[in-house]
């Protein structure tokens, strides 16, 4: 698993836990819905700005997302 895949898994997990659609996440983070889909599938590299925007909509601290991504990467 690479960083992009782990990022996608983590944001999708939190998005679904909060019952937020890809469209609503994209709107709140000022991103395109297709970009959210590509992120969740590990097809795009998120920027630090993207990380912060998405974490704000998901109501989670950016460092918590990064910690969870690290945990997934180290489970391999």
TrEMBL record:
Gene3D superfamilies, per the entry: lambda repressor-like DNA-binding domains
GO molecular function terms listed in the Swiss-Prot or TrEMBL record: DNA binding; DNA-binding transcription factor activity
The UniProt record lists the keyword RNA-binding: no
Keyword DNA-binding appears in the UniProt entry: yes
Record-linked InterPro entries: Cro/C1-type_HTH (IPR001387), Lambda_DNA-bd_dom_sf (IPR010982), TransReg_Diox_bact_type (IPR050807)
Assigned keywords, A-Z: DNA-binding
PANTHER family: HTH-TYPE TRANSCRIPTIONAL REGULATOR (PTHR46797), METHYLPHOSPHONATE SYNTHASE (PTHR46797:SF1)
UniProt name for this protein: Helix-turn-helix transcriptional regulator
Record organism: Priestia flexa
């Amino acid at each position: 698993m690479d960083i992009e895949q782990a990022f996608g898994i983590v944001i999708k997990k939190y998005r679904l836990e909060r019952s937020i659609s890809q469209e609503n996440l994209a709107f709140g983070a000022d991103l395109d819905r297709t970009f959210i889909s590509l992120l969740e599938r590990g097809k795009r590299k998120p920027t630090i700005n993207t990380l912060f925007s998405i974490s704000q909509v998901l109501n989670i601290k950016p460092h918590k997302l990064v910690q969870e991504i690290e945990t997934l990467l180290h489970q391999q």
